[in-house]
Specification:
Elements: H1 2-14, E1 17-22, H2 27-32, E2 35-37, H3 39-48, E3 53-57, H4 60-69, E4 74-76, H5 85-88, H6 92-100, E5 106-110, H7 115-118, E6 123-125, H8 130-135, E7 143-146, H9 149-159, E8 164-165, H10 178-187, E9 192-195, H11 201-206, E10 209-210, H12 213-222, E11 228-231, H13 236-243, E12 249-251, H14 272-281, H15 290-309
Parallel strand pairs: 1-2, 1-3, 3-4, 5-6, 5-7, 7-8, 9-10, 9-11, 11-12
This protein binds 1,3-dihydroxyacetonephosphate (13P) and iron/sulfur cluster.
């Protein structure tokens, strides 16, 4: 294991490569990454890196976002099969028909989409900035929001908007069970419930704090004396426990399983071995059709500009 880490460090230097990791990655990958963050932070780091190679330890759409922002750089992912059920729930051709059927609507898309869907979008959002970006439009703006119906309903509820929602969802966050969370809460009555807005509204109603992975982490770091039931992909517990070693974090379990935590099978496809191989062989590489990229970059840059203005 130590050898593997040393090899990764050596290859990073040799090739002027930067390794970016999402909070849902395996702990050992988070530990070797140069930066670990949520979807917004990964896009922000990709946009400003001076490295020649970006290795995106996350899922395919995250690699695509980096490639669209940095077309002249080589963007690698350790396992090209690391997809996303939420991005898959929004095929570009169907989304295009939906957008065309609603002329006059502003199209806001969650970052968990393919570059082809982003190319049909006016502004991209992540769970960190979705509320503020939606609120940056006039109250009566007609908005299509896709693809996550749970995040969309949550933003509708907190902003009083009536955005038209695409009917997509993440198979991991949909899995959380109200019954199992209530059961854990009964055993740990003082624990606060932290939930990601990709969870169903019944789960969000139970939550004390709703936010992106970065927002949930930030809350825990600010209140380490609390204990927490965490309703998002369990990879985030690695950084939570690192930053708050004396805090109790209990992963919320999925509904139809005996497993204690809820893992994204796509995120977990990346391993240290695959990361070493991908740095060594400079493959698999993310490619995006330049005609798509030239349109997809605009809504991503618009998101980065608004986020910078808002200090996010
Ligand atoms: P954030 O990184 O924005 O919290 O989103 C979580 C997610 O589902 C990434 O796939
Ligand atoms: Fe996609 Fe859900 Fe996995 Fe995030 S956790 S990458 S939204 S499938």
């Amino acid at each position: 294991m130590d050898n593997l880490r040393e090899e990764i460090e050596k290859l990073k230097k040799e090739k002027n490569a930067v390794v970016l990791g999402h909070y849902y990655q395996r702990g050992d990958i988070q530990d070797v990454a140069d930066f670990v963050g949520d979807s917004l932070a990964l896009a922000q780091w990709a946009a400003k890196t001076e490295a020649d190679i970006i290795v995106m330890c996350g899922v395919h759409f995250m690699g695509e976002t980096a490639k669209v922002l940095c077309p002249d750089k080589k963007v690698l992912v350790p396992d090209l099969a690391a997809g996303c059920s939420l991005a898959d729930s929004c095929p570009a051709d169907e989304f295009e028909r939906f957008v065309k059927a609603h002329p006059g609507y502003t199209v806001i898309s969650y970052v968990n989409t393919t570059a082809a869907v982003k190319a049909l979008t006016d502004v991209v959002v992540t769970s960190t900035n979705a509320r503020q970006i939606v609120e940056s439009f006039p109250q009566d703006e007609k908005i299509i929001f896709g693809p996550d119906r749970n995040l969309g309903s949550y933003i509708n509820a907190v902003t009083g908007r009536n955005m038209l929602l695409w009917n997509g969802a993440c198979h991991v966050h949909e899995q959380f069970s109200v019954e199992k969370i209530v059961e854990i809460k009964r055993e740990h009555p003082d624990a606060l419930i932290l939930a990601h807005p990709e969870c169903k509204s019944a789960v969000l109603k139970l939550a004390d704090v709703v936010g992106s992975t970065a927002a949930l982490l930030k809350y825990a770091v600010k209140h380490p004396e609390q204990s927490y039931i965490v309703a998002t992909e369990s990879g985030i517990l690695h950084e939570m426990r690192k930053q708050c070693p004396n805090t109790v974090f209990i992963p919320a379990p999925p509904a139809d399983s005996t497993c204690a935590c809820n893992e994204c099978s796509y995120m977990r496809l990346n391993t240290l071995e695959k990361l070493r191989d991908c740095l060594r062989d400079e493959t698999p590489e993310i490619t995006v059709d330049p005609a798509v990229a030239v349109r997809a970059v605009k809504p991503i840059e618009r998101m980065l500009e608004i986020s910078a203005r808002l200090g996010l």
